[in-house]
Design brief:
Layout (H helix, E strand, L loop, with lengths): L18 E7 L5 E9 L4 E10 L1 H4 L3 E18 L2 E15 L15 E14 L6 E12 L1 H9 L9 E11 L6
Antiparallel strand pairs: 1-2, 1-8, 2-3, 3-4, 4-5, 5-6, 6-7, 7-8
Length: 179
């Protein structure tokens, strides 16, 4: 019997997240922590995250709060307890730093961004008696809206150069709150 995402049931407490994510880079700042929720029979996911670039890495401390939405494109089972899935989506990011522009002017603000992405995740499922139900490793290609716009508008910005790579870890704990 193959383990699939239908075996990973939704929590009985609606506000309890289904999983925790840790992400490195990828326009979400140097590092981020995310909580995520499955919905529509596990075909869609929504994540809320907090990211940060410390001042030693970026000149100014930058904090980001964002909402990330994605839909599953396909799922592949290379073995019994392994699942690989491809997803596409976008995040809406709000950055906080001393040099942000949050009001519209003659130029675009730099505090709010839409970031489309393509994500591929490899998920390992564990036996039922384990505290951690599944662990996933993923990589994500994304591009910030401002960079995409500039690559189309200016010949000085190469389209390929606007893309960023993120690496991450997903941890889903056993649901001790369900009935």
């Amino acid at each position: 019997m193959n383990i699939n995402e239908k075996n990973f049931e939704k929590n009985s407490i609606p506000l309890m997240p289904d999983y925790l994510k840790l992400q490195y880079a990828g326009n979400i700042r140097l590092g981020s922590v995310e909580i995520g929720y499955f919905w529509l029979k596990n075909n869609m996911q929504t994540e809320i995250f907090y990211g940060k670039v410390p001042s030693w890495a970026g000149g100014n401390t930058i904090r980001t709060v964002a909402l990330k939405n994605m839909v599953k494109l396909f799922v592949f089972h290379p073995s019994k307890n392994v699942l690989i899935k491809q997803q596409v989506g976008f995040s809406t990011d709000l950055a906080f730093t001393k040099k942000n522009l949050r009001k519209l002017a003659d130029y675009s603000p730099n505090a709010i961004h839409i970031i489309p992405f393509l994500l591929q995740e490899c998920i390992l499922y564990f036996k039922k008696y384990r505290f951690v139900e599944k662990v996933g490793f993923y990589y994500e290609y994304n591009a910030m809206d401002t960079y995409l716009y500039q690559s189309l508008k200016s010949k000085e910005v190469n389209f390929i150069d606007v893309f960023s790579l993120a690496l991450g870890l997903v941890i889903a704990f056993k649901d001790y709150f369900s009935t």
